[in-house]
Records
---
Amino acid sequence: MGGDAGMDEHSESRRMDMRLLIDSNRFIDFCAGDPVVTDVFERASLLVVPFVVLAEIRCGGLLVKRGEAQVRVLNELLQQEGVRVAHSTDVTAHHYATIYATLRRSGTPIPVNDLWIAAIAMEHNLVLYTGDAHFDHITSIPKLG
């Protein structure tokens, strides 16, 4: 994550020139200590958290058993160099509408929050890091599983 204080020279040399937008499921995997996800997070040149994921994690903080711990991890992550938050804009809404219409015509709708996530990835030319297969219906954005 772009210049983490905890990264050594070896980790620095392993950094991917990849700009990632993270989905909630990958954040939860990160919180659970999944070594593959942790490695991807640490090696990304930019890690972007969409506003929707912020909301989902904060909702979890109020509703699920480990939610408060996940919110703490989120707050720490957001303080790291190379980590940004992406909010919606008019351009995001345009991409949202395009994706929505395409998926509806093909009979493959996806959840509303995931439409916003895909639209932000498209707007900012980011690789979507997700474990959700329904994003495979959106061929216009690159994905990392």
---
Amino acid sequence: MAREIDVNLEEIGNHMSSPVMSIDAEATAQEAALEMHAREIGALLVTKFSEYIGIISDSDITRMVVGAGHNPETTLVADVMMKPILTMDRFLPVVEAETFMQKHRVRHLAVTEEGKIVGIISVKDLVSCYSQSFRMTE
């Protein structure tokens, strides 16, 4: 008999990606795209002087660089990143992350613990969580 998972009780931190992957604000969109491709991830936090100042996703590069006709080899991450960084505490339920991400129309959310960013949760992570729950209840 399969064990049922109550997604309403699942914590964000159980489904986030960690450690956090980042890129410097002065890097190019091309470098960000190559880094995301190499790591098989969809977003990077953006740093300046070792502090997180924004987030850039593969869709940001597609829409705001390539789609807008800018050169990814010369467009800086700082010029196309999203800010401020939207965050949620790792101990909140996954359903809160889902609702928050829908409301703010984002696919990636920084995850915090005691105010410090410790991971990222994506729509892909949420789908995996829900599909795991579905498989467990079959």
---
Amino acid sequence: MNIRLYAILTLLLVLTGFTRAQGVNDSLYSPWEPNPTKATLLSLTIPGTGQIYNRKYVKGALVMLTEAYLWYAVLDNQRIANNLLKKRDLVEENSSEYYHYRNEFEKHIGARNDNIWLLVGVKLFSIVDAYVDAQLFRFEDEMGEQFALKLEWKKQTPYLFFQYNFN
């Protein structure tokens, strides 16, 4: 899919409120909570929308940009490899140019394959992350009074404080 079209569709979904909480259950008395299945499906179909649905906007934007870049890198390396293959076929076999084009072709195919694996990893991470964020949406609110984890700097030294209230 064209990257511009992809970005426009995602922006339209966000602007139209598709990722906002809507429905009968929204009121002052019942706060909105994300549905883990919906977050997973959104993240599976359109990168970053599962995170945006969970109201993790920065994380959603990062996932969106990372996946878009990896798709670009995959397609660009494939395009370059195809051009090198065409050039290799035009020169005499066993010449220095032939081996140069072959080595460059293999380099770009390797880069393409690496980017595909990274893309798969980022996609799996975003799907699992959207599901877990939806499941733990109210975790900080519920555990905030009992559990505290703070990072503070004192005299250029980091200190990690852990507090748990036994009530």
---
Amino acid sequence: MQRKLAIVSALPFCLLPLAALAQGPTVNFGIDLTSNYVDEGATVSNNQPAIQPHIEISSGNLYGGLWFSNIAPGPDTLETDVYLGVTGDIAGSSGLSYDIKYTRVYFNSTGDQGGTLESAFSYAPSDNSEFGITVKNDLAGGPFGLEFSADHTFANDIGLGIEVGKSLSAGSATYWTVALSKDLSEKTSVELAYHDTDMSTPLYTLTMSWATDILTNRVE
């Protein structure tokens, strides 16, 4: 069953070169300053602040980029994510979209940490709300993971996001995040988030984000 699901999840990714449209590219550059690098409810920076710059190039439905963060404790101190994906609306639907992304993770000391294919599908009943499901697969016979999310934007550019996820392996933790965000300008935002799992104590993060399209000075 897992092998069949892996093949189905990988098919859209194999079609990535066909998905790019012949339009000018955008280059988005940004940086996050966060009080704690948290992934799936666990700290990756040993509960210390992290600086997380990124750069992403997109053309039509196709995109790819680099994302960085300091991590702790050693021997590794830097994480580099290399990713490629395709995203767009599902033809003939109303409010349905997809985002298929493959990410490869490298640490500066121990090297290649493997890759993950994420197949995400979302439904936006309005301009202010979106619900999503993401299937995660390492394509190496490992267990799948599932994430469910819900986002809503209120007046004054205040956003509320909820995420619940779990790896489908025995003994894995269920994790969840509740985040409240606020756009301070077209390029800058702030987020306060609560992270928890059924196997650990809660974590809280405060994150400042800045991003812009460096080719056209347009925010992505």
